[in-house]
């Protein structure tokens, strides 16, 4: 058995060096430590070892197990650091001062990412809805559980028309109409331009894009919400992204969360794009409040659902390394023609 342990140690070291991405590291973990893994097999075989050798063999196998666990953990850390570096390096390639050199037009980066997201969600059974930019007070606020005089309105001041209608402050303004249009069960995303009367800085614009998503069915839970958020991010960035979920208050969800991603402009160290926090608020979400379901004609006793409001413009900043959100509305071709045609 000693020879088997030594041989396994040797083969593990060789294979560990070859494991260059998270998927390969996970395969290696399963091959050695999984239910049918080689180290697990050795531990199971201990029962057949002669009594006087059991203790020594047990120690040797446990030592090997420890080496495998530590080796994989160190390799995964190296892989993540390299992936992070590659993303930050890719983001640094964007340079607003480069000459355009382009004679033909190109899609706006927000259009490129919006289309990519639409494809990802369509492949998961979501329909894609278009909605108005000018909405009523009821659609924007009351239907999503923000009655008149609710303090949450202070966070979303906007531009009002003389007829009392307003420029929508968030894509949640379409929730009521879409719930009414389809009823339950339902899976839909609705990207759209939003407007807020607020001072601009590197990560705030008065005009920006969000993409809302809702899923309503029997027994929908936070687990479903997290699954869809993770799938979306890993497909957009083509790798696992550091995210954190923290409690967040929005009157139209209960419970509500803020989902932040590690800032890809500075690699999490802090910069103006992430207000020096290393994290960027990207996608608030939560379980749809029963009042919102009721207002949309859906019985909250029978159905539950989740909703998220992705900051599409912020996602574009992270994906392409745009340090200042104002570049995206600038109409500056030097900035906007640097993105791939699709
Ligand atoms: C909302 O607008 C909620 N309607 C989102 C929501 C939907 C929550 C469904 C729960 C369920 P918030 O005001 O935090 O939340 O905006 C959502 C995202 O839009 C932010 O995380 C951010 O990425 C983006 N965003 C908000 N304000 C601006 C702005 N001024 N400039 C650029 N992006 C912004």
Automatic annotation (TrEMBL):
Co-factor requirement: Mg(2+)
Keyword annotations: Aminoacyl-tRNA synthetase, ATP-binding, Cytoplasm, Ligase, Magnesium, Metal-binding, Nucleotide-binding, Protein biosynthesis
GO MF term list: ATP binding; catalytic activity, acting on a protein; magnesium ion binding; phenylalanine-tRNA ligase activity; transferase activity; tRNA binding
Species: Candidatus Acutalibacter pullistercoris
Entry protein name: Phenylalanine--tRNA ligase alpha subunit
Reaction equation(s) it catalyzes: tRNA(Phe) + L-phenylalanine + ATP = L-phenylalanyl-tRNA(Phe) + AMP + diphosphate + H(+)
Keyword Transmembrane on entry: no
Single Gene Ontology BP annotation: phenylalanyl-tRNA aminoacylation
UniProt cross-references to CDD domains, sorted A to Z: PheRS_alpha_core
Subunit structure: Tetramer of two alpha and two beta subunits.
Cross-referenced InterPro entries: aa-tRNA-synth_II, aa-tRNA-synth_II/BPL/LPL, Phe-tRNA-synth_IIc_asu, Phe-tRNA_ligase_II_N, Phe_tRNA_ligase_alpha1_bac, Phenylalanyl-tRNA_Synthase, tRNA-bd_arm
Residue ranges of every copy of the Aminoacyl-transfer RNA synthetases class-II family profile domain listed in the record: 167-318
Binding site for Mg(2+): 254
């Amino acid at each position: 058995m000693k020879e088997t342990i030594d041989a396994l140690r040797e083969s593990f070291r060789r294979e560990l060096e070859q494991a260059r991405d998270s998927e390969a590291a996970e395969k290696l973990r399963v091959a050695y430590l999984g239910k049918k893994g080689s180290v697990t097999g050795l531990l199971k075989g201990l029962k057949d070892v002669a009594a006087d050798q059991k203790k020594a063999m047990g120690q040797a196998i446990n030592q090997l197990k420890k080496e495998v666990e530590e080796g994989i953990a160190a390799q995964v850390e190296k892989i993540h650091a390299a992936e992070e570096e590659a993303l930050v390096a890719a983001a640094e390639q964007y340079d607003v001062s480069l000459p355009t050199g382009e004679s033909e037009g190109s899609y706006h980066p927000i259009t490129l990412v919006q289309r990519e997201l639409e494809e990802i969600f369509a492949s998961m059974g979501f329909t894609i809805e278009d909605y108005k930019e000018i909405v009523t007070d009821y659609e924007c606020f009351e239907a999503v559980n923000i009655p008149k005089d609710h303090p949450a309105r202070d966070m979303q001041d906007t531009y009002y028309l003389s007829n009392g209608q307003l420029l929508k402050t968030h894509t949640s303004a379409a929730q009521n109409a879409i719930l009414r249009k389809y009823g339950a069960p339902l899976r839909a995303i609705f990207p759209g331009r939003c407007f807020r009367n607020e001072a601009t800085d590197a990560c705030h614009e008065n005009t920006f894009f969000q993409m809302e998503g809702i899923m309503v069915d029997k027994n929908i839970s936070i687990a479903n919400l997290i699954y869809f958020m993770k799938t979306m991010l890993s497909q957009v960035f083509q790798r696992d992204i550091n995210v954190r979920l923290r409690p967040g208050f929005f009157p139209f969800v209960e419970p509500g969360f803020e989902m932040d991603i590690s800032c890809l402009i500075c690699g999490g160290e802090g910069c103006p794009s992430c207000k020096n926090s290393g994290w960027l608020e990207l996608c608030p979400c939560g379980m749809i409040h029963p009042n919102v379901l009721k207002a949309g004609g859906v019985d909250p006793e029978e159905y539950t659902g989740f909703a998220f409001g992705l900051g599409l413009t912020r996602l574009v900043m992270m994906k392409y390394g745009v340090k200042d959100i104002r570049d995206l509305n600038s109409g500056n071709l030097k900035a906007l023609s640097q993105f791939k045609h699709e």
